[in-house]
Amino acid sequence: MLSQKARYALRAMIELARADTQVTAGELAERADAPRKFLEAILLSLSREGLVISRRGKFGGYVLARDADAISFAEIIRLVDGPLALTPCVSRTAFRRCEDCRDLATCALREALLRARDATAAVLEGYSLADAANGAGAELIEG
């Protein structure tokens, strides 16, 4: 399940993708409908990971560190919430055997969870901030 923190991060990043200039934390909080202090902590983390550039001072604000089409939803979610996989035994980025697993090769759950992880990753890696900022996918909601 996507955390509230990840939803705020995605909303703020989409707003940065829509902006043609830097945006202050206060403006981003308003546009993303997020608590300012919480969003500032999220933005600090995204800045450390190289997704946003933070400029301090009276005329400071935030801008994307890369083009919006080069930042996927998957990248943001992984930075905020961790792996996309439902269980650690199917994670590509944080693999570990499940505590109650007797045998990975014969696990009756693993194949379905692998498919779910692959499908989720394919969608989220293929959907960029530019797609969201430009309204791509709106036809799916309306249809």
From TrEMBL:
Alphabetic keyword roster: DNA-binding
Name by which UniProt lists this protein: Rrf2 family protein
Superkingdom as given in the UniProt entry: Bacteria
GO cellular component: cytosol
InterPro entries named in the record: TR_Rrf2-type_CS, Tscrpt_reg_Rrf2, WH-like_DNA-bd_sf, WH_DNA-bd_sf
Gene Ontology molecular function: any one: DNA binding
Source organism: Caulobacter vibrioides (strain NA1000 / CB15N)
Gene3D superfamilies noted in UniProt: Winged helix-like DNA-binding domain superfamily/Winged helix DNA-binding domain
Keyword DNA-binding annotated: yes
Keyword match DNA-binding: yes
